[in-house]
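Retro notes (design track)

What went well: tokenization of the new backbones is finally stable.
What didn't: we kept losing track of which sequence belonged to which structure.
Fix going forward: every design gets posted as structure first, then sequence, in one message. First example under the new rule, 214 residues:
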């Protein structure tokens, strides 16, 4: 198919919508601001220290890459089954943890409500639907889920280091000042198991989708 036909393909169109949802959610969430005035540099650092925000940025990056015309290096990265499935893992956990534990953490005002809906519902649902429907799928090796753990583990280490230095934690269940290191580390270990279980489940689903397509 030529470049014009590919430009109008459903896969590229819906990935573009997902990218716009994630980017709009990030912008609106930032515009909603913290409850108290904060210097812009510190505010930006804290904002992107939320796993939700950094993961939505990752979704936007990959969705834009998938929406690009064929032959672009960015697109090649964004269409790798392992990359796409890893992002599906991260954004699925974002949605699950929010709805299970953090549904009361919504910034005030219309921009806060809309931004929250986009980053916790629209972008996750959109990426997961695109991952399921459009692929590509297949070829994910058995060790890939272990490699996918690098991002959440690095995020956890960053959160603890950032909190120790500045006394601020993005999520209540990671607040060492309130719960202490043993409780926080136990919570993080349980979340790591959740990540790993979902990772292997998504790898299995990806393999089934590849066989069905073949």
């Amino acid at each position: 198919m030529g470049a014009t036909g590919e430009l109008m393909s459903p896969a590229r169109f819906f990935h573009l919508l997902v990218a716009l949802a994630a980017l709009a959610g990030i912008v609106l969430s930032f515009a909603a601001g913290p409850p108290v005035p904060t210097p812009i540099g510190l505010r930006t650092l804290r904002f992107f220290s939320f796993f939700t925000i950094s993961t939505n940025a990752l979704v936007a990056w990959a969705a834009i890459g998938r929406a690009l015309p064929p032959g672009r290096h960015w697109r090649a990265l964004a269409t790798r089954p392992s990359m796409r499935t890893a992002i599906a893992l991260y954004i699925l956990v974002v949605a699950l943890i929010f709805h299970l534990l953090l549904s009361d953490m919504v910034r005030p005002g219309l921009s806060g409500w809309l931004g929250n809906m986009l980053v916790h519902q629209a972008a996750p649902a959109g990426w997961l639907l695109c991952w399921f429907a459009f692929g590509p799928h297949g070829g994910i090796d058995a060790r890939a889920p272990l490699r996918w753990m690098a991002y959440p583990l690095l995020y956890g280490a960053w959160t603890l280091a950032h909190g120790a230095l500045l006394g601020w934690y993005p999520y209540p269940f990671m607040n060492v000042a309130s719960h202490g290191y043993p409780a926080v580390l136990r919570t993080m270990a349980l979340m790591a198991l959740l990540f790993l279980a979902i990772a292997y489940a998504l790898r299995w689903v990806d393999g089934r989708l590849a066989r069905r397509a073949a």
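Added context from the reviewer: Confidence is low (pLDDT under 50) at residues 1-7.
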